[in-house]
Each structure stands twice: as C-alpha cells, then as structure tokens.
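Example (one chain per record):
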Amino acid sequence: MALTDVTAPKIDLYAAKRVLAGRLMQNTTQSLIFRDGYGVTEEFSNDVMAAQLRILRHRRPTIVSRALDDANNGGHFNTAGAAQPSTKEYGLDLLEIYDNVVDIPTVLENMINIGVLNLESQGIEDQLTRLMNAYTFAKQIAAALTYDAQTGVTGVISYDASTDSLTDKFFEAHLKLDEGAPNDDIDVFKQEGRVAVFVPTAKQKLLVDEKSVFEVGSSRAVQLLEVGSAGGLETAPETNVTGYFGMLNNTPLHLLSKPLMTIVESYLGLDAGDLDGILGMVVASEATGRGVAFANNIKVVDSQAGQGVRLQPLTRWGVEVFIPEGIRLIVDSTFTNPVADDATLDIVANNARTQVFA
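Predicted structure:
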C-alpha cells in the first residue's frame, strides 16, 4: 500500500516540493481553574494512599447566655446540664483514576523528526487537567441541581434575558452565599475563596451588553475593580490559560468553555446540550473538597508490545460537595432542572458516560 500519492502536489504539469513542517500546531488547554482556597478546599489530602478520606468538622457550641434573676435558670449557679463537644462528618471518595498506558514505538519516532514522547507526555498532563476541571464542575453542578430539586428549596437563580440584568443575578448569588449555611455552622461564606465561572455567552453579556463597568470594554475599568483605586494599575495580568477575565465584587471571573461543559455532561450521564441553560455559578471554597491520592506522575518504561517505550500515567482523585448552599448556579429562565423532585444527580458509572472525551 502506497504511503501517499507521489504525483501530488503538482502545479500544471510539474511536480512541486512538499516537506513536513518542523513545528507542530499547538493545542490550547484551559489550566486548572480551582485550587486550594480558590473555589475548592484541598488541604485535607496530600498524596494520601486511601480510597476515602473522613473529614471532621468540630461543631460550634450550642450554649447560649442566660439572664440572672430570671424565673427560668436565673440563679447564681447554672442549673443546665453539662454540654459535650460534637463533630459533623463528611466523606471524600478518591476513586476517579487516570491510568491508561500509552505505547510509543521506536519505529514511529524514527520516521518523523518530532519528539513524540515529549509531546504525548504533555498531552497526557493537559488531558488530566481538563478532566479534573470538568469533574470538579460536574460534582458542583450536580450538588446544586440536587439541592434545587428538594421540596421547598430554590437552589438556582433564574435569569430572563428580556427583563433581568446578569450583573444583578451575579450579586444575587453573592447574597445567597452571604446567608451562609446554618446547619453546617457557616454564618457567612467567606468572601476570600469565592470564584465565579461563566459560559461564553454569559461572559459576552457581562462584557458587552450589561449596564456595568464592563460595558465600556475598558481593561483599565476592569483593573479599577481589581485594585479598588486608580493607583497600582501596573499589576501584571494572570498569564495562565485559566480563562480569567477580570474581577467583580472582589470575585475572580473565569470562563467555563464549551468543550469542558461537554465533558461535564458526560460525567453526569447527560446528553450534549442538556446543561446549555446553565450560564454560570458563584462558588465558595468551603463548600467543596477535592483530594488527590497520587501526585501527577508519568512513569516511562520499556513497552511490552515491542521496541519502544510505554508511558504509565497514574493520578487518582476525588471531589465532594459538603455544603450545597455554597454553590449558586445562574440559569436561563428556560432551563429545566434534569433532576426529578427529591431525586439526586451524581457522577455516573463508566459505561453510562455519554460522550467520548474529545
């Protein structure tokens, strides 16, 4: 079988030269968006060799002050019984693993003047980043939609493009976070650690259509929001490809790209487009725990298939939303929650994941 058509390329009746470019086109991968204290909490795990982490929260005392000279327990000595400390427990499963081996034949590298080994290693790291981003978003979105499906709970914020301001809805999400989560001893979710992500259409509306400082399209106006004054505008922008596009209400804003959302839908067993009505979310770092059992590592050994090398990636991680009140979704008014009343949504089994991770 011929490798290619040896008569091409040709201009008129004369053959033209064709060579393989010495440089490859580069892929662009969105870097890890959330990190410890920035949208998630990761302090619970550091290369822990376990399937599950049990995390404890020391409950705050329930004792209240009393008034002296009162008919009910108002004497010199407090007659109430002795109190004891208590905890609330959370589980963080570390059961998602990336470990598919890759063989690179020596003869393949001999036929092309490009370092396939290094490129494939970088590709594995990039793909792992994409999957961890999407897995984190999937757990957070699933928790928020499950919370919204509970009887008597409105867990999402609805946006009607014909009447509402998306900026107003962004601040409404912050208002909900300011209300805290009393059942988990959270009076108010800390401002530090809050992060917002928006899909491309919502980002466009924030930057162009909204009656806000973004409307002018001025990078200096965005910087004023970041630093809080007219001074210090020489602050260097973030250079990582995280989709960062500014701050509002002291909250970093990031892009949630369409390819990432497609992987999110796959992790949740949904069809492509099922979550198209989600415009964005504002999250507090205390609400979500993420742990990594193995550090990102790629082992290189001889290939068992023949002459060549085998790449053996091994990373295992887990994400759990402990406090769903700390995840506030902003959805289009036409969006229908795919979770039935009082049902749940979560990561599905391998054979139920709906799309190929392209």
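Caption: Residues 300 and 311 are 5 Å apart (CA to CA).
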